[in-house]
Amino acid sequence: MMSIQPDFSDNVRIFTNKLAEREFSRIFGFSADVLRNAAIAALREARETSDLHSQLSAPGARFYHRFVEAVREEVDMLDGWSANREADNKTSPRARRTDGLAFAFKQGNASTGVIEGVPQPKNKLGVVTVLELQNNNAAEEPEQLSFDELSAEAEARPQTLWLLLFHRDVDDRHVSLEVSLPIGVTDDGKILGWDKRIVLGETGIDSRIVEVRDDGRNEGDDTAVAISAR
Predict the structure, then answer these.
(1) pLDDT at 213
(2) Bigger pLDDT: 129 or 156?
(3) Which of 15, 61, 175, 179 makes an SS bond possible with 23, Cβ 3.0 to 4.6 Å?
(4) pLDDT tens, residue by residue, 157-184
(5) Rg over CA atoms, the chain
(6) 120: helix, strand or coil
(7) Do the Cβ atoms of 222 and 22 come closer than 8 Å?
């Protein structure tokens, strides 16, 4: 029997610029600059690897591992957060908070960080990640709920897995970042749509690493609103 999968792509709430900074800090309790600084450091190391023409540590793999470790090194120092490697899903690293909030690192497609885009993980999600995302909405099957009902549940639940999506350009000079909450996922790992997208934009290899402020406040243009993904 064929199951009908809902399409919620027109209802996604997107946060950019100053609103993205505030929403990220409100949900996760630390500054998004932690992610940007890690991306800058990883881009620089990836470029160095590329210059050495290493076949054992390709730039893409080097960026991924350095980015993940740089973020998790910072997360380990935050109250209530942990990047415990021993309890990790080895194929999909996590950062977790004591109340169950977590994010997983995933390479995204070219729509990652693009306001009008429809991002998806570049590679198929693993079984463990799929089960965790499905557990986000375990109370009801997605096709039995409206988008508003699903969004309300996503807003209220404390134990939620987000995806930290990143997309590098071909020259390893820029990376686009967003932290987004899926509204649902199929058994074969396809994201059905997004409840929220916190779009952090593009960070370049020549960007300045900024000092992370403890209060999570950020400067910038307060021009972002929730808009359609199409």
Answers:
(1) 41
(2) 129
(3) 15
(4) 445 899 999 999 877 688 999 999 999 8
(5) 17
(6) coil
(7) no
**Which residue has better confidence, 24 or 147?**
24
Amino acid at 189: G
Q: Are 184 and 150 in contact (CB under 8 A)?
A: yes
- CB distance 113 to 176 below 8 Å: yes
Across the strands, what pairs with 121? Answer: 108
CA nearest to 183, candidates 208, 158, 154? 154
One-letter identity of residue 210 = V
Length of the chain: 230
Give the pair of three-digit tokens for residue 13: 């709430």
DSSP per-residue string spanning 124-193: PPPHHHHHHHHHHTTTS-GGGS-HHHHHHHHHH-SS-EEEEEEEE-TTSSEEEEEEEEEEEE-TTS-EEE
At 213 the three-state DSSP class reads: coil
Per DSSP, 212 falls in state P
Phi, psi of 65 (to 5 degrees): -65, -40
Query: Which among 146, 137, 152 has a CA at the least distance from the CA of 191?
Result: 137
Long-range contacts of the stretch 173-176 (C-beta < 8 A, 24+): 173/43, 173/47, 173/204, 173/205, 173/206, 174/43, 174/202, 174/203, 174/204, 174/205, 175/39, 175/42, 175/43, 175/63, 175/202, 175/203, 176/108, 176/112, 176/113, 176/114, 176/201, 176/202, 176/203
User: For residues 32 and 177, what is the distance between their CA atoms, to the nearest angstrom?
Assistant: 10
